[in-house]
Amino acid sequence: MWFHHKISAVVLLVLVGIYDARATIQVGDKFPVLDKRTLAGGSVPETTGKITLIDFWASWCAPCKVSFPIYAQLHTSYYARGLIIVAVSADENRAAFDAFIRKAAPPFTALRDTGHELASIVKVPAMPTCYLLSRDGRVRFVHQGFHGAATEDQIRREIDSLLAEPSPSP
Predict the structure, then answer these.
(1) Terminal CA-CA length for the chain
(2) Within the chain, how many helices (H) and strands (E) appear?
(3) pLDDT tens-digit map of 26-58
(4) Each residue of 13-46: b (16+ CB within 10 Å) or e?
């Protein structure tokens, strides 16, 4: 009897693990609404009808530090054409977030996920991870990690392809 209970517990844990893996926001999914009640550090930009890059990062993350200047260049290149970049920090320490933002001085929106609510809903797999959304708010591309010029080139191609798509009808 004990053996059967142990097997049942293992099967349950495996099923819960499978469910959790499938609950992650994936390509094709609608991205959750950016909620100004849980994101601190600035105003949540309007993203409706815009190509949106949402990047999850942290001040202690070395690849995140490399990504910010690249995202600044992407912002400069594409903002006028409809790209919105929102960098969402996982920093628990507000002082670390503030110091990073002061030093990086991003031209795009950088917010702090104060209770890790958005990151929990999305189930962010690693720092950094960025989600590139089409105008209808659906995830079209996901980049886990940041690999310098290779990631930048790939994201630029993806943004260009999204900008070439017709705007959805209202």
Answers:
(1) 60
(2) 5, 6
(3) 999 999 989 888 898 889 999 999 999 999 999
(4) eeeeeeeeeeeebeeeeebeebeeebbebeebee
Residues 61-96 have pLDDT tens digits of 999 999 999 999 999 999 999 999 999 999 999 999
Q: At 142, is the secondary structure helix, strand, or coil? A: strand
Q: Give the number of domains in the chain.
A: 1
10 Å Cβ neighbour count for 113?
26
6 within a domain of the structure (yes/no): no
DSSP state of 90: -
Beta strands in 58-108 (DSSP E): 83-89
Parent domain of 133: 26-164
Contact 112, 91 (CB under 8 A): yes
Asked if the structure places residue 2 within a domain, the reply is no
